[in-house]
Specification:
Length: about 325
């Protein structure tokens, strides 16, 4: 069953009527194909017009949709012979970040990503995609392993942010994120990152300091969540809609600002309406990016990655 967002209510009503008509046709043998076809055409036009003018806040809702494909879905579909690797070899295993080795398009790679979980039980298990320090230290370990064996690294970004609990802070959350960024910058292998849902704050950039940063069309990427921004600036989380617009968190905004390198189009109505098509498009984009870097020397890869991030924010400055 499709989970409709608040702004999709007119679409939900139309598609609900279509389902009722189909049920009636099946029950009584009544031929109402013409009416169903007419309503389907109307629903599709409404879907097109709605998604053509999404506000930043509406895009935030789409990015958070529970049915969007998760990191595990991308791994299942794109990575052959995936072997998960667990633990940070210091404290514990953190399931908010998953990773391991496998084969992508015939080549060995290291894959790391945030995992939110697809249902209530899985979300609790994966801490809603919010890593603790051991998650980032596991990511560091896997990236260093990839660097040692010359494996390209692919990361999938989907987190509201790093876990803000007292236990995480006590174990060095800020240091773990900073160290993870440093490891990203030091790699001599290609690093490709794809924002598949939310890219929240340092919790996202910790594994996204990449040679190429890609974003799905309706994903978001920001220094803070709209709710967090609103609570700081206006002392009112209800101002999240205004904050979303001010944060410039959409894929198109970030491409224009030079923060990301490419936007991957989603199926009409968002990735959650056709997960397999979304994953195929993402796989093709990642493959194209990896080909660009396959022949480059490790030192060049590292230097260009560093230079790319050092240049951010300097546009227009003398």
């Amino acid at each position: 069953m499709h989970n409709y967002l608040d702004f999709e209510k007119p679409i939900a009503e139309l598609e609900g009527k279509i389902q009722e008509l189909r049920h009636l046709s099946g029950e009584g043998g009544v031929n109402i194909a013409d009416e169903v076809g007419r309503m389907q055409s109307k629903a599709e036009k409404l879907l097109v017009s709605t998604y053509a003018k999404l506000t930043p806040w509406q895009k935030t809702q789409v990015a958070r949709h529970a049915n969007r494909p998760h990191t595990v879905d991308y791994i299942d579909a794109l990575i052959e012979d995936f072997t998960p690797l667990a633990g940070d070899r210091a404290f514990a295993e953190d399931l908010a970040i998953i990773g391991g080795m496998g084969r992508f398009c015939g080549h060995s790679v290291m894959v790391i990503g945030h995992e939110k979980g697809a249902d209530t039980e899985a979300r609790i298990k994966h801490n809603f995609g919010m890593p603790r320090p051991e998650g980032y230290r596991k990511a560091q370990r896997l990236m260093s392993l990839a660097n040692k064996f010359g494996l390209p690294v692919i990361t999938f970004i989907d987190t509201p942010g790093a876990y803000p609990g007292i236990d995480a802070e006590a174990r060095g959350q800020a240091e773990a994120i900073a160290r993870s960024i440093d490891v990203c910058l030091s790699l001599k292998v290609p690093l490709i990152s794809l924002v598949i849902g939310e890219g929240g704050s340092g919790g996202a950039i910790a594994i996204a300091v990449a040679n190429s940063v890609l974003m799905l069309q309706h994903s978001i990427y920001s220094v803070i969540s709209p709710e967090g921004c609103a609570s700081i600036l206006w002392r009112d989380g209800a101002q999240a809609k205004d904050a979303a617009g001010a944060l410039r968190l959409t894929a198109r905004d970030l491409l224009d600002l030079g923060v990301i390198d490419k936007v991957i189009e989603e199926p009409l109505g968002g990735a959650h309406r056709d997960a397999q098509a979304t994953i195929r498009s993402a796989g093709q984009a990642i493959e194209e990016e990896l080909k660009k870097y396959s022949e480059l020397d490790g030192g060049v890869l590292r230097a260009s990655r560093r230079e790319k991030f050092l240049k951010m924010g300097t546009k227009g400055l003398s």
